[in-house]
Amino acid sequence: MNRFVTALLISALFSLTLVVHGADPTKPFITPPAPKFTDAERHAELARRRAAVAAKMEDNSVMILFSGQPRIYTNDVDYAFRQENNLYYLTNLKQTRATLVMKKAGGKVSEMVYVPKRDPRQETWTGHMYSNEEVATISGIKTIADASEFAAFFSGVKSKSDASIGKVYLILPASDRDEDGRREYPAETAMAKDFSAGTVVNAAPIFAELRQIKSPYELKMLQHAVDISMEGHMRTWATAGNTSMEYEVQAEFEYVLRRRNADYWGYPSIVGCGPNATTLHYEDPQGPVTKGSLMLIDAAAEYDHYSADVTRTFPVSGKFTKEQAEIYQIVYDAQEAVARVAKPGATMSQLENAASAVIEDGLFRLGLIAEKGKNQHRRWYMHGFGHWIGMNVHDVGQTSTLAPGMTFTNEPGIYIREDTLTNMRDSPETQAFIAKVKPAFEKYKNIGVRIEDDMLITATGVEWMTKNLPRSIGDIEAFIASNPKVN
Predict the structure, then answer these.
(1) Taking the mean position of all CA atoms in its chain, how far away is CA 122?
(2) Each residue of 339-381: pLDDT tens digit?
(3) The dihedral sign for the CA sequence 41, 42, 46, 49
(4) How far apart are CA 309 and CA 393, in angstroms?
(5) Angstrom distance (rounded) from CA 255 to CA 235
(6) Measured between alpha carbons, how far is 241 from 295 in angstroms, rounded to an integer?
(7) Residues linked to residue 463 through DSSP beta bridges, in sequence order
(8) What are the tens digits of pLDDT across the range 186-224?
(9) Angle between helices 322-341 and 473-481 (to 10 degrees)
(10) Coil/strand/helix, residue 289
């Protein structure tokens, strides 16, 4: 069967088959329709969020939130625009040069959005701009002003001509980078310098606290991003056997993102085969797809500003070798240990300890560490068990104690990198370690396994948001065996 015909069969299969939890795990998962909300539902959700923010503001204060800024890719070409998270959290507005002002005085809160006036000449080049009516329809905020008027407003705030304004809330990062470490806040940073000491209050902790607990509205958005991601992963399992290069596999995953109208990925896709699976953030998929090797795919969709984060490691040929399965099972068991501990009142450090204990025991059993209690397992497990997810793939949070509505990843991993032993600092202890683990290292080297699922804390425990994506060795092998492929 040629590749073109095979691709058509796969596409048809993925278009016609729907998996629900508890159904046959050998069938592909198809993303359900995107969640839809009425204007009234959206307005109620955004108003609830703004009220929660206002409740944390001091009386006689003002909060100013700016839109994100276009970033130059090259010459006159920008990167795709993505709105600043906190402004979007309160308004759902995706346009540049939008500014939200919330004023609290005498216990009453007023809200205003500044947006640029529509410009037909600019729209000819870059597309539709919001009208005032559209801003109100999207955000639920009724008071709209032209962006050109903001300078006069800010001048009044700075000069304290309005006696009802004492404190000024701005988003100020801990460093010169935003919450995701990628973009400076030039407007906010410069503006803060215009005020006397004690006037400016950093609003970032307010949003970090509120965004950590997801509302039912938010969870529908996040679950849709998870659903798109699951469909993409299962497509790669069915097609990897037809490919020769990693970038072909990445294309199969990202095809699903486009087809399901995701914003696109929540982070650059990681698609590594064989030794490349031992590089944690491997983002240059130029390696070959080799039969008998494991392929690690850490890739996920973002939908309406909410990002999933999903990883699976699977055998290209459809069957795990004994050594691959032994490493995989340790990681799987570590995930299970995390899920048993995850519940309201537990801490992230307790979850980390649960994962680490299983991995340490497993690596010791396989001979990949010489003794327990010395953190030797960190040679092969370098990262934490997980992190918050939401409007960023590594989302903000103010507490490490779990509560209902919090969402996080469960992603232990083991990476037997070929150069690990040669790159260790030379010492008698190192030489003793190498001598002890070298036989096992030769057996397992170049195996990299990470399994990552998205979790929701409920009132009684934890829900696997990625539950429809096969995870066990048996289910993954059964899925690959039951779907079109060329080995």
Answers:
(1) 33
(2) 999 999 999 999 999 999 999 999 999 999 999 999 999 999 9
(3) positive
(4) 6
(5) 10
(6) 11
(7) 456
(8) 567 677 777 877 899 999 999 999 999 999 999 999 999
(9) 120
(10) coil
Query: Given the structure tokens 């779907």, which residue do they identify?
Result: 483
Residue 241: CB atoms within 10 Å: 19
Is 138:93 a contact under the CB 8 Å cutoff? yes
Q: Would you say residue 281 has pLDDT above 60?
A: yes
Close Cβ partners of 66 (under 8 Å, ≥ 6 residues apart) = 84, 87, 98, 99, 171, 187, 188
Compute CA distances 182 → 67, 75, 283, whole Å: 15, 20, 17
425: phi > 0 → left, psi -120 to 50 → alpha, else beta; which?
beta
Tokens of 251: 């294309």
Residue with tokens 């003794």: 371
Q: Two tokens at 68?
A: 């994100």
For residue 403, give both structure tokens.
């509560």
The pairing of strands 167-170 and 61-66 is parallel
Q: How far is CA 40 from CA 36, 133, 286, in A?
A: 12, 15, 48
- Could you give the CA distance from residue 415 to residue 418 in angstroms, rounded to a whole number? 9
Least Cα distance to 234 among 284, 299, 278, 304 occurs for 299
* SS3 label, residue 114: strand
The pTM of the full predicted model, rounded to 2 decimals, is 0.92
Q: Report the DSSP beta bridge partners of residue 112.
A: 101
User: Which pairing describes strands 306-307 and 311-315: parallel, antiparallel, or unpaired?
Assistant: unpaired
Tokens read off for 153: 């407003």
Taken in order 206, 161, 97, 48, is the CA torsion positive or negative?
A: positive
pLDDT for position 169 = 96
Share of the chain above pLDDT 70, in %: 91
User: To the nearest 5 percent, what fractions of the chain are helix, strand and coil?
Assistant: 40, 15, 40
Q: Write the CA distances from 161 to 105, 164, 201, 436, integer angstroms.
A: 14, 9, 19, 74
Residues in the chain: 487
Contact of 465 with 222, CB cutoff 8 Å: yes
Identify which of 410, 404, 398 has the alpha carbon closest to the alpha carbon of residue 455: 410
